[in-house]
């Protein structure tokens, strides 16, 4: 029976040791949660004080670039429209889009021709 007593003593000792380890583990988990909470607060603070200005600066830079590109695209479009209107004016005035008439016909000469006909038909 002495053997059983040694075994019970060992189990009792192991149980006490297990409870002590569990208590220590519980305390360590509680401290870890506290550290994690503090870390989350620090990360949130960093996000607003350090990361946010970097993101805002990058966004402003991209918006500025977009503004420049948009302005250039608008200028290019205006120039294209002007060019098309110039071609249309040349077409009306000279009969060709490039402004050069092969037969000398222009809107101006056409108008003069009409005026002359009207003048002499009276």
Summarize the SSE layout with pairings.
Blueprint: H1 2-94, H2 107-120
Uncertain spans, ≥5 residues at pLDDT below 50? none
What's the number of domains?
Answer: 1
User: What is the number of helical segments per DSSP (H or I, 4+ residues)?
Assistant: 2
The gyration radius over C-alpha positions equals 46 Å
Order of helices and strands: HH
Apparent shape: rod-shaped
Structural class: mainly alpha
Instruction: Report the count of strand segments.
Output: 0
Q: Sheet bearing the most strands, described?
A: none
Fraction of residues in β-strands: under 5%
Give the N-to-C terminal Cα separation: 151 Å
Structural description of this entry:
The chain is mainly α and 122 residues long. The protein has one domain (2-120). It contains 2 helices and no strands. The mean pLDDT is 86.
Pick out its properties:
122 residues, mainly alpha, 2 helices, 88% helix, 0% strand
Put the structure in a nutshell.
This protein is 88% helix and 0% strand. The chain is mostly helical. The chain has one domain.
